Prior knowledge:
The chain is an alpha/beta fold. It has helices at residues 4-10, 12-25, 32-45, 56-66, 84-91, 110-116, 136-146, 203-212, 234-243, 247-265, 304-313, 343-351, 363-377, and strands spanning 49-53, 74-78, 95-99, 121-125, 149-153, 161-163, 169-171, 178-182, 196-200, 217-219, 222-223, 271-272, 295-299, 352-355.
Amino acid sequence: MVDLNGQYQSIKEQINLSISNILETSAFINGPEVHSFQKELEDYLDVKHVIPCANGTDALQIAMMGLGLRPGDEVITADFTFAATVEVIALLQLTPVLVDVEEDTFNIDISAVEKAITPKTKAIVPVHLFGQCANMDAIMALAEKHDLYVIEDNAQAIGADYTDSEGKKQKAGTIGHVGSTSFFPSKNLGCYGDGGAIFTNDDALAHAIRGIVNHGMYERYHHDVVGVNSRLDSIQAAVLRAKLPLLDGYCDARRKAAIKYTKAFESQDNIVVPVTVNTCGMASDICKCHVFHQYTLRITNGKRDALVEHLNDNQIPCGVYYPIPLHKQKAYADERYNEVDFPKTNKLVKEVISLPMHTELDDEQITHITNAIIAFVNG
Length: 379
């Protein structure tokens, strides 16, 4: 699904030198590489504050802690996503409220969000799934109307642009009150272990979060708030510093691969290709609003599971993200949920399949993959 070694070979000399320097200086925690990466990511995102942390799940949890959410507060998020999003809500003893998603973009359904808001609702967590932003204009309008926080789960969309209704462009993760991301190795900007970061333009919130990530300390051994131990280590920061200047190029390579996939599938009645809805005012072939962390098809003739088996048998990687809705997961099942409220999610989990998507994909590989899928689906 990803070719991390191929990507490493292209930046091997810089990576090895940076890691060697850290080993020589032994500045493993909060060293110069971490501080430099923080500043460089702030510049890239055009955001006032980036707070690095240990992983993307921590980033979400710490963002919620920084906002002062309390047990029993309701937090609305998408039913169709990875469990980390709802996991941290439950860990903090908040009340997760899962809602349906849009069938075409896979992102949270705005009408479902609005319907789910109650006097106990304190926050909305839109997940920018597979690399494309949710409808942030509508989400921010709802948040303002109901005095809610917006926490962007940007684990899959770092580098994506969002153009609002007035034509203003912002980077994904910097639009809401606070954003979070993951630097898991397979992400568009991935390190060689675990890593994450939190973004905000709110000075007071940034100050609170900086204490939380470091045991609640602003001064050593003075614990002013309840915190956690969640720090990005220097080796991971060095890897991310090497990759950050290449991120736009990485995303462009993914877009070019996505265009080739889409062209191959465009005349197939049983295959639905991903859509791009926020055009950024640019031609579709260079649109920056989707970074294609995943290239996800829908197989509409009931052959999805058989296709997965066929591809596996032929050594063609694929993935199903995600096979079970969160509202049906044992850990998050709740009598509040009614199946009639999740028609799109329940349909998508039976249809979606993600194809190999990374910076090293070539035309021969794409042709081999698409031909195998078309032949099987129509066979």
